[in-house]
Amino acid sequence: MTETNALVLTEVRGRIGCITLNRPRALNALSLEMVRDLMATLLQWQNDPQVLAVALRGSNKEGVFGALCAGGDIRFLHQAGSTGNPQLEDFFTEEYALNHLIHHYPKPYIAFMDGIVMGGGMGISQGASARIVTERTKMAMPETAIGLFPDVGGGHFLSRCPGRTGEWLALTGETIGAGDAIALGLADGYVPSAQLASLWEALSSQNFADSAAVQKWVDGQMGTAEAHFAKQQAEIDQYFALPSVRAIVAALEESASDWAQATAALLRKRSPLMLHVVLEQVRQARGMGLADDLRMERDMVRHCFYLRPGQSETLEGIRALAVDKDHAPRWNPARIEEVQDAQWQAFFVSPWPAHAHPLCTLAD
Questions:
Q1: Which of 143, 174, 180, 299 is catalytic?
Q2: How many Cβ atoms from other residues are within 10 Å of residue 210's Cβ?
Q3: Cβ atoms of residues 17 and 4 within 8 Å
Q4: Confidence (pTM)
Q5: Would you call 120 a catalytic residue per the annotation?
Q6: Distance CA 302, CA 308 (A)
Q7: Among 5, 37, 117, 179, which residue's CB has the most CB atoms within a 10 Å radius?
Q8: Residue limits of the Enoyl-CoA hydratase/isomerase domain (predicted)?
Q9: Is 151 considered catalytic here?
Q10: Residue 143 catalytic?
Q11: Which of 17, 58, 115, 120 is catalytic?
Q12: Could you give the CA distance from residue 173 to residue 5 in angstroms, rounded to a whole number?
């Protein structure tokens, strides 16, 4: 086991590589150091014949499980983005490369998606071969609330949700539970949280013949859970298939449905500019492989911090939520109707030539 004060604890138990995120006070928010530790560990284990599979979990203040990962360390992003710290660039390049590795990992990768699984937490679990959710799972890609977009491959996995639920999740940042996650293709199965510890122990004590046997055994441990979003599926598809953010919000506001009114009110709180960016992101990603999506998102996140010097929606969104905590972001433009096409289109122009892109070596 790595030293207990480390933020990422790793240990090979039996034939399983076990990873525990160990930053409970920050809900295991990912730092650059944690991304690097995860990457180094996974690269080492992928060629280690002793390791048949990898299992990932988070910890909370009382112990293990209860929270997988709340996302990236947004306080670091604000500090680095405000001071020109070059580690900001390193963080996103290396995080996205880690996401890509997990999606293409040659061995079973089992993600215990208990508790909060948001943002970067989705990035280190959506590529898993077994995505386990519990009754405590709170899953979301809430980036539009901080003037960002659902990155870490969010365009890829959200765009592949049924109907227009990907647009709905990406634009609103709504939180879903276990049953909805399974129904939307964002989880593979349900295990009651009370059984997680015994499942973890059994993984490392079973005598598995090979990696395929691990995967088969884990698949057999997962059940189903009731979905709730289905009541809104028809409305989600009706509104979020519309051609623009302006059209979506206008139609929602004209509806007599309580759900439509609440959804419109929620969208009005998000960054108007980033809503336009995110709608385009999801729709472009629907026709892309993961590597191309991650390259597009790397372009986009560069623009989030540097496209408009002194006017970063992301820095303003994080300031309002996590720094000053006034929960009153001053978005620019202030209203959905004021966003010009050229403003959101600029996010999809790569700042690098293809051969020099920081993720140019990724392939699917």
A1: 143
A2: 12
A3: no
A4: 0.97
A5: yes
A6: 11
A7: 117
A8: 16-348
A9: yes
A10: yes
A11: 120
A12: 33
